[in-house]
Every structure is written in structure tokens, then in C-alpha cells.
Amino acid sequence: MVVEEIKTLILGADGMLGHDLQKVFPDAVSRGRDLDITDEAAISAFIRELSPDLVINAAAYTDVDGCEDNRETAFEVNGNALEYIAKACSKVGAVLVHYSTDYIFDGSKEAYVESDAPDPINVYGESKLLGEKNIMESMDDYRIIRTSWLFGVHGKNFVETMLRLSGEMDIVRVVNDQFGKPTYTADLARKTAEIVGLAPGIYHITNGGVCSWYEFAAAIIDNVYPCSSEEFVRKANRPMYSVLVNTKTSPMRHWRDALKEYLNIRGNGEN
Ligand SMILES: NC(=O)c1ccc[n+]([C@@H]2O[C@H](COP(=O)([O-])OP(=O)(O)OC[C@H]3O[C@@H](n4cnc5c(N)ncnc54)[C@H](OP(=O)(O)O)[C@@H]3O)[C@@H](O)[C@H]2O)c1
Predict the structure, then answer these.
(1) What is the C-alpha to C-alpha distance for residues 79 and 87, in angstroms, rounded to an integer?
(2) What is the C-alpha to C-alpha distance for residues 225 and 144, in angstroms, rounded to an integer?
(3) For residues 250 and 238, what is the distance between their CA atoms, to the nearest angstrom?
(4) How far is the CA of 171 from the centre of ligand 1 (A)?
């Protein structure tokens, strides 16, 4: 499939990744909150009438702690809506690209390949896993891209939180016992265009390099101090290791290089 020649629909276009997808797919029809993915009738009618070749869904309920309190919304947005989208795609013969998460794994292994068995330990992970299952049961021509620890110019993210806290506090404490792979949304959006042309299935796509949240923070700010997850209790459980291993396609650059670009763009006020 030649990306420039296909009719593309981006859902969740107002989100952090959605913004970067719009740059990679400039001719795409983009919909944000104005098209509620949990409204089955609206989603079905929109996809039927547009009849796209490719649908990229970047809409999700991504507040991991919020999902614990709002279980029903989490399952509706991250789970059931994927059945509506996948069925509509199947009817018009569209490829569906959807994003899932490292949090579908329990973190008891140091690294996860695409075929490893999921076992989520929080509501966000459970709801995202339901989304994956609904897609796989409803259509054949899908690409499920599992990714992790996203940062991008157009959204609330860990890098911005660290920069803010660094100015507000003498010492910022960050957990040093949860490990993962930070991923720059601009890189992920570019890689998405490549994955559209690959075989249907599940892909693990992140920037290169593994770190703890503390190590990630230390690359952003100076006044950071390591602590344990026990000292920094959150509403949702988080996996200790959620390292996604990509066995299917070429690797992306190291997260430190991507972070440098992000900080430059941010510093220059570009977007
Ligand atoms: N962020 C991460 O660290 C991370 C890690 C792994 C995987 N992922 C996955 O990567 C994808 C992109 O994440 P992101 O960080 O770019 O997310 P994001 O910035 O939170 O964007 C998600 C967008 O979806 C919208 N949305 C929520 N409910 C909707 C609904 N019912 N109908 C239509 N739109 C709705 C949100 O609108 P509102 O803002 O108005 O709610 C937001 O604009 C998601 O699938 C996410 O699960 C993210």
C-alpha cells in the first residue's frame, strides 16, 4: 500500500500521538473528540460513508490511575469501542492500525516479545487488552502496535511533568525500580507509516534503550533523587519490567537521541 495514495482516517487526532500522525499523514481525514468512538452508530456510519482504505485509531482513555476509578469508561473507550471500529473497518475493507500498551503485561519478565501471554495488573491494561481481543475477533487486516512511555510535543507527558516539578521542588523523587522504554510520538508516527505496509499482526514498537523512570528523569532534570515504588504509592499497580522487544521490524533510534530532539523542538517553540 503506498501511503500517499490511500484514503486515511485518523481517530483521536487531538491527542499527543494523534497530532504527530496528522503530520505523517497530511491528507488524512482527522477526527478528534467530535467523533466519539464509543458511539457505535456514529462510528459505523462515519466509516461506511467515508469508506477509507486505512483507519488509524489513536483515541484512548490513557489516564492509568483514572481508569481504576472509572472502570466503565476505560472498558468502553479502550475495549468495546474497538469492536465497533474493527467491524466497521471490516465492512469497508479498511486496514486498522491501533495502539496498545506495555501495561497488558504483568512485568514479571524482564522483556516481552509479541507472542508472550498478556496478564495485566491494572484496569488500564485490562481494558487495552480487551481492545486487542475485540480487534482480532472482528477482522483480519489489523496492525496492533504495542508501545510504551510516550512523550510528544502535543500532550501531557512525563518529560513536561519533570520539567514542571523541577522548578517547583528542591528535590524530585522518582521511582528507580520500574523499567521500560521511553518512546517519542514523532518517531512512532513515522514508524506507523512503515507498519501499514507490513503483514497483519501485533508489533512491539518503542525507541531503543531500557531505563527506569528515575534514569529517564535524570536525563531531563538535575534535581532528581531515586526512590522505590513502595515509597511512591499510586492508585494503579504498575509492572516492574515492561520492556517490549521488537522482533518483526527495524529498530528505532535510542530514546536519548529522541529526547534531545524533543527538548530542542520544545526549546525553539516549534511544533
Ligand atoms: N501515553 C502513553 O504513555 C502510552 C503508553 C503506551 C500506549 N499508549 C497508547 O498510545 C495511544 C496514544 O496515546 P496518547 O498518549 O497519544 O493519548 P492521549 O494524548 O491521551 O490522546 C487520546 C485522545 O483520545 C481522545 N478520546 C478519549 N476518549 C475518546 C472517545 N470516547 N472518543 C474519541 N476520542 C476520545 C482524548 O480526548 P480527551 O483528551 O478530550 O479525553 C485524546 O485526545 C493510545 O492508544 C494509548 O493507549 C500510550
Answers:
(1) 13
(2) 36
(3) 28
(4) 30
Ligand 1 atom 10: residue of nearest CA? 99
- The count of other CB atoms within 10 Å of the CB of residue 25 is 23
Q: What stretch of H or E contains 57?
A: strand 54-57
271 pLDDT more than 80:
no
Helix (H) / strand (E) containing 132: helix 123-138
User: Percent of the chain beyond pLDDT 90?
Assistant: 93
HSE-up (13 A, CA, CB side) for residue 34: 8
Task: Please report the domains of the chain, with CATH numbers, ordered by start residue.
Answer: 3-157+180-209+241-253 (3.40.50.720)
| 33: Cα separation from own chain's centroid | 17
- Candidate from 21, 34, 43, 62 with most ligand 1 atoms within 8 A of CB, to mutate: 62
Q: Which residues' Cβ are closer than 6 Å to ligand 1?
A: 12, 14-18, 32-33, 36-38, 58-62, 77, 99, 101, 128, 147-150, 155
Give me the pLDDT at residue 4, please: 59
Catalytic residue among 61, 99, 103, 124: 124
- 31 CA distance to ligand 1 middle (Å): 13
116 CB neighbour count, 10 Å cutoff = 14
Confidence label for 233 from pLDDT (cuts 50, 70 and 90): confident
- pLDDT, residue 269, reads 73
Interval between CA 13 and ligand 1 midpoint (Å): 9
Residue whose Cα lies nearest atom 32 of ligand 1: it is 36
45-64 pLDDT, tens digit per residue, is 999 999 999 999 999 999 99
The model's pTM is 0.97
For residue 76, the CA-to-ligand 1 centroid distance in Å is 13
C-alpha cell at 89: 473497518
177 touches 240 (CB < 8 A)? yes
